Amino acid sequence: MKKLIIPGIFIFMFSFIYSTLTFSQEKIKYTKPPKKDPRSSWALGLNYGENGFGPYVNFFSAISRSTDLTFGLSVSGVSDNREVERYDVFGNSIIPNKINRVFMIPLSVGIKSEVFKDDLEGDFHPVFNLGLTPTLVITDPYDQSFFNALNEAQTYFAFGGYTGIGVNFSSGESTSFSFNFNYYYLPLIGNGVQSVEYNTINNVGGFQLAIGVNFLK
Questions:
Q1: Which partner from 54, 68, 98, 125 sits 20 to 30 angstroms from 197, CA to CA?
Q2: Which has the minimum average pLDDT: 14-18, 29-33, 96-100?
Q3: What pLDDT does residue 169 have?
């Protein structure tokens, strides 16, 4: 009988230890957390357009996994296609018949959607843009110095929209680069503005190339 008891005790102890270790391994089994999907938080960049160029800042708010609500503000000069820059004998820049400097400050509200987000892998993501753009337009006399002319500045308003395509290139978990090619339709409300004599600008929109850096969250 004793010969049976001792092996039985060993078998019971071995079974208990084995089952305990197995349960512990299953309980503390490590599961890898899902990879975080970085989203755009805000961006800085430059707009290059038919009428001029200037800086912009954008802010983003996610409304779905692939679509963001965007708020953008930019400042740029507006030039007439008839403007021709020349230089006098002293090297000073002159634009014949130019009467006003023209600036615009567009406020863009729209959506940015990363198309084919679930179908494409890698760092490149095609983008579709669409939105509305109320715009403040400012003119001041060209024959006065920049700061003196501000006293005689006049304001106008334009309203329209934009659409375009682009691409985001991820450079890490904190930043990405964006390249967007958009078309803006921005007719002025009421009378147009003049940059040079005998020609009126009625639309301050046109094609724009936007190059910027997105800061991710």
A1: 54
A2: 14-18
A3: 87
